[in-house]
Amino acid sequence: MSFPQYASAPAPKRPMGPHKKAGLVTGGVFLGLVIIGAATGGGGGTPIATPVAVTTTAVEIPAAPIDTPEQAATTEPAAAPTTEATTEPEPVAEPTKKLTVAQENAVEKAASYLEFSAFSRTGLIKQLKFEGFSTKDATFGVDAQKANWNDQAAKKAAEYLDFSSFSRSGLIRQLKFEGFTTKQAEYGVKKAGL
Question: Which residue ranges does the record annotate as region Disordered (predicted)?
Answer without folding.
Answer: 65-93
